[in-house]
Amino acid sequence: MKFKNQLISVIFIFSLQSFADVKNVAHRGGALLAPENSISSFKNAIVLKADFLELDILISSDDSLMIMHDETVDRTTNGNGLLSELTYSQLRKLDAGRKFKKKFANEKIPTFSEILEIANKNKIEVVAEIKSTDSTAVKKVVAMVQNYKMQDRVILSSFNIDQIKEVRRLDSTIRIQLFATVNKEIIDQLKEINAEWIGSNEFSQEIIDYAHSKNLLFNVWTVNKESEMISLIKLGVDAITTDDPATLKKLTSSKKNK
Ligand code: G3P
Ligand code: CA
Prior knowledge:
Layout: H1 2-21, E1 23-26, H2 39-47, E2 52-59, E3 65-67, H3 88-92, H4 112-122, E4 125-130, H5 137-147, E5 154-158, H6 161-170, E6 175-180, H7 184-192, E7 197-200, H8 205-213, E8 217-220, H9 226-235, E9 239-242, H10 245-253
Parallel strand pairs: 1-2, 1-9, 2-4, 4-5, 5-6, 6-7, 7-8, 8-9
Antiparallel strand pairs: 2-3
Bound molecules: SN-glycerol-3-phosphate and calcium ion.
């Protein structure tokens, strides 16, 4: 009987930790709630008390680090063309909000520097994904994080393992994350460079446990349904990247799950 009670306590403590501890990563700031990768979406994620702002970094033709997911500005703004072929001042003239909803008209494409400043002020962490494939991209991104002295508040991420290896070489105090459809070989490669995080769009109990056995934290993207969030938390993931940080927040702070 005593053992049964202890077991119930252990299960209770485990579920308490797993729901409350899973990190809420606001994908593109929370792309279902406000224009993706915009100041409005990042401010909204801060209001919602997400743990991380996730954002994508590209480089303008005159070397500014800009926050946008697609290589072209066509889908999310009133302009067209490759972001990398437009100057900072051309990019800042574009409307990056109206296509999402009229009330967000005149939203500007943010810079990495602006978001770091906002994150710093609001003491929120950042998952910054290097989307640019330019050979100078990693150096520029690392230098910007160092300028803001935010090495302990930013996880630099990429689908390209060479880019995160370069981050590690340049500044070993910045956490790194590889985005991939994860398997054991990838986890082994990440272990070799002492990466902190793996971000995956596929998962299983076995692969999550394997990552944990190699001291890697497991982030799953992009999860917007509450039922899927619950299943993932039960599997023991460390972070969920979502377009709907409000739903995840409700779930992790619900009394029902405490
Ligand atoms: O969080 C991972 C995710 O951001 C990678 O996919 O295409 O949304 O940048 P994507
Ligand atoms: Ca991304």
